[in-house]
Amino acid sequence: MKISALLIARNEENKIRKCLQSLSFVDELIIVLDRTTDKTMSIAKKFSNKIYQGKWEYEGDRRNFGIAKCSNNWILEVDADEIITIELSREIKAKIRLAEYDFFYIKVLNFVQGQPVNNGWMSCLAPDGKFCLFKKGVKTWENQRVHPNYSLSGKKGKQLENYIEHKMSENISELFLRFNRNTDLKASDLLDNKSSFKSCFSIRKVFSRFLKCFLSKKGYKEGIIGLLISVLCGLYLLVSAIKAETLKKETD
Question: pLDDT per residue over 98-116, tens digit each?
C-alpha cells in the first residue's frame, strides 16, 4: 500500500530539512509552499520534484489543494516543524495495510526550548494530537485562516501508539510569536464571522480556558512553562477579539 506525505510550509528554512529527512519512508512527497521568500524552496528541491507554490489566504484552501495533488490512496499530513520518528514511520506503514479503516489519530508531542511539554495544550497554540493519516477523499478542510475545522468520513482506526515530534518553539520568544500570529489570524476570522464575534469578549471564558489547560489538561505538571501556556490559551479568544475590534474600526 503506497502513501503520500503532504507538507505545507511558509518560510521554514530553519526547520524543514529535518522534517523532510524524516519522511524518507513515503512513496510520494507533495510540498505546498505558501508565499515563501526564504531558502525553503531550495531545501525542498533536494527532497522532492513535486513542489507547488502559491498564495492562499485561508489555511483550509491550501490544505485541500495539497490533498488534491496527492496521487496515492493514503495521505500523511505534516507541518515543516514536525518530525516523524522511525518508530512512528514503521507503525504508519503497518496501519495502512488495514483496509477496513479510513483514518487514524496520531498523538503530537510538543517541544519548547528543546524540551518535551506533555500537558496543558489547546489547539489555539498547538494540538496534542490530530487525524493526519487518512485515505484520499476522507478529509476536507473548511475555509479558516488558523487551525481550521475539517470533516472526516469513513471508519476510524485505533489511535497510533507512537507520536509526532513537534519542534514548535526553540525559545519563549518564538512561543509568543506563535501566539501573536495565531491571534492575528483568528481576529480576521472573527471579523468575517460577525455572529460569534461579541461572545469572545468574555472574562469568564478567559478563566475557564485557563483552568481547563492548567487543571483538566494538567498544565501544572509542566511547571512555569505549563503556567505560561495555560495563560496564553486562556487569553487567546479575548486577545483575538480585541484585535478584531481594532481591525473593524480601521475598516469602518
Answer: 879 999 999 999 999 999 9
pLDDT single digits (tens) 178-198 = 999 999 999 999 988 876 677
- Of 233, 205, 68, 86, give the one whose Cα is nearest residue 77: 68
Q: Which grid coordinates are listed for 28?
A: 510520494
List all residues 6 or more positions away from 83 whose beta carbon is below 8 Å from its beta carbon: 18, 19, 22, 164, 165, 166, 167
pLDDT reported for residue 164: 98
Letter for the amino acid at 195?
S
Nearest to 229 by CA among 70, 72, 111, 55: 111
Q: Which conformational region is residue 217 in: left (phi greater than 0), alpha (psi within -120 to 50 degrees), or beta? A: alpha
Cβ–Cβ under 8 Å, residues 227 and 240: no
